Amino acid sequence: MAFGDVKTPQGLKELNNFLADNSYISGYSPSKADLSVFDALGKAPAADNVNVARWYRHIASFEAAERAAWTGAPLPQLAGAKPTVAAAAKPAADDDDDDVDLFGSDEEEDAEAERIKQERVAAYAAKKSKKPALIAKSSVLLDVKPWDDETDMKEMENNVRTIVMDGLLWGASKLVPVGYGINKLQIMCVIEDEKVSIDLLQEKIEEFEDFVQSVDIAAFNKI
Question: Which residues of the chain fall below pLDDT 50?
Answer without folding.
Answer: 78-97
